[in-house]
Backbone:
C-alpha cells in the first residue's frame, strides 16, 4: 500500500475513534448537565419530525347507563389528557401505542378499556419524555384523566417493576376499573430494556 | 402463545360476510371468541374482549354475520390445535400460510382490509377504511431510543472538526 494511502487510512481510523469518544463524552456531559432538558428538546424534535396524519376527531358519546362509549376515537387521535400533580405531569392521551403515537404523548393500549367503562386501562409512555418521572409516583397519589365525555380520578394503590414478558402483571378484564401506567425501566441508559415500571391505580367513584 | 394475530385478523375481515347462517347474539359471539382456549397445552386468549366490543360498536355487524365469523374462527383455532405448536414462532410455514390464506380470502370476499406490516404488526381497518387498530405485542419498548438524534450529529461534528484540525497540522 502506498505510504500516502497508509497515512490517510491511519488518520481516518484515528479520526473516527476520536470522534466516537468525543461524541460519547459530549452526550454524557449533556445528559449530566441538562438531563431532562435534552429529553424535552429531543421530544420536540421528534414531534416536529413526525408527520401526524390528518385524522378526524370523533365526538365521544358516553352511555352512563351501560357504562360504555357509544362512539370511540379513531386510532392515533388524541382523546384525553392525563394529569399527575405529584410529579407535575400533564400529557395528551392518544388511542394506540405504536412508535409514532408514543412520540406524541401517552399511548392507550387498544386492547384495553376506556376511562369510565369499568375495566382495565393500560397506558404507556417513553421514560425520557412524558413518563420520565413515573417511578417517583407513590401509593396514595392521584391521577386524573380528562376527556370530552367526563373526568375520571384514580388513586394509586401499588407500584411494581415487572419483566417485559410478564403480561399477566398487566391484566385486562372488566371486573374493576384499574388504570395501569408503565414505562421502560431503569430510566437511565439507552437500548433495549427488559423491565417496566408500573403504577396501578383504582377509580375513585364520586 | 402470543395473541393469535392471524386468527383475529380472520375474525374481523369476515365482519361483513354476506352468507346467511344461524344467527348468534353479540354476547354469545364475544364470549365465544374471547374465551381462553387450550392450544397444545397452553392457555390462550386470542382476542381482547374490550377490543371486540369496541369493534362491534364502531362497525355495524348482523347476528348472521357474527355466526359466520364464529365458524371461521373455529376453523382457525382447529388449524392451530392440529399444528401442535405452542407459540406462533413454532407454526410451520404451511400452517401460517393456511391461516393467512383464510384471512385473505375472507378479506377479498368482504372488502375489509388488513395489512401485515414490515415490523410484524398487523393493521386492522374499519368497514369505512379507517384504521381500527395496529396489533402487535402488548408491552411496548418505551426506553431511551431518542438519543440517536443526538449521537449522529455530535459524532459528525467532532469527526469533521478533527479532520480539519489534523489536516491543518499536516499542512503547517
Residues:
Amino acid at each position: 500500500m502506498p505510504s500516502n494511502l497508509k497515512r490517510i487510512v491511519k488518520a481516518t481510523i484515528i479520526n473516527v475513534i476520536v470522534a466516537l469518544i468525543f461524541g460519547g463524552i459530549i452526550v454524557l456531559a449533556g445528559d449530566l448537565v441538562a438531563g431532562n432538558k435534552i429529553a424535552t428538546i429531543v421530544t420536540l424534535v421528534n414531534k416536529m419530525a413526525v408527520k401526524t396524519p390528518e385524522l378526524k376527531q370523533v365526538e365521544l358519546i358516553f352511555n352512563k347507563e351501560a357504562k360504555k362509549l357509544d362512539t370511540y376515537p379513531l386510532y392515533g387521535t388524541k382523546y384525553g389528557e392525563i394529569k399527575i400533580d405529584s410529579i407535575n405531569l400533564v400529557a395528551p392521551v392518544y388511542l394506540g401505542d405504536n412508535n409514532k403515537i408514543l412520540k406524541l404523548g401517552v399511548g392507550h393500549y387498544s386492547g384495553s378499556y376506556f376511562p369510565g367503562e369499568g375495566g382495565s386501562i393500560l397506558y404507556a409512555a417513553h421514560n425520557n419524555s412524558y413518563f420520565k418521572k413515573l417511578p417517583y409516583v407513590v401509593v396514595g397519589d392521584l391521577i386524573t384523566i380528562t376527556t370530552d365525555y367526563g373526568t375520571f380520578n384514580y388513586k394509586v394503590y401499588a407500584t411494581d417493576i415487572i419483566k417485559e414478558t410478564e403480561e399477566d402483571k398487566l391484566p385486562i378484564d372488566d371486573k374493576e376499573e384499574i388504570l395501569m401506567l408503565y414505562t421502560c425501566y431503569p430510566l437511565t441508559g439507552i437500548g433495549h430494556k427488559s423491565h417496566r415500571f408500573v403504577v396501578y391505580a383504582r377509580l375513585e367513584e364520586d | 402463545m402470543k395473541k393469535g394475530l392471524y386468527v383475529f385478523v380472520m375474525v374481523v375481515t369476515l365482519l361483513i360476510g354476506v352468507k346467511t347462517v344461524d344467527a348468534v347474539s353479540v354476547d354469545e359471539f364475544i364470549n365465544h371468541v374471547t374465551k381462553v382456549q387450550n392450544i397444545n397445552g397452553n392457555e390462550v386468549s386470542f382476542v381482547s374482549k374490550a377490543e371486540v366490543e369496541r369493534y362491534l360498536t364502531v362497525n355495524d355487524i348482523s347476528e348472521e354475520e357474527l355466526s359466520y365469523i364464529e365458524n371461521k374462527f373455529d376453523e382457525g383455532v382447529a388449524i392451530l390445535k392440529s399444528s401442535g405448536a405452542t407459540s406462533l414462532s413454532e407454526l410451520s410455514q404451511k400452517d401460517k400460510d393456511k391461516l393467512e390464506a383464510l384471512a385473505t380470502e375472507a378479506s377479498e370476499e368482504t372488502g375489509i382490509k388488513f395489512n401485515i406490516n414490515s415490523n410484524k404488526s398487523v393493521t386492522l381497518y374499519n368497514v369505512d377504511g379507517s384504521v381500527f387498530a395496529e396489533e402487535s405485542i402488548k408491552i411496548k419498548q418505551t426506553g431511551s431510543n431518542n438519543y440517536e438524534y443526538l449521537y449522529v450529529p455530535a459524532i459528525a461534528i467532532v469527526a469533521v472538526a478533527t479532520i480539519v484540525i489534523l489536516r491543518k497540522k499536516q499542512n503547517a
Summary: The CA atoms of residues 102 and 114 of chain B lie 12 Å apart.
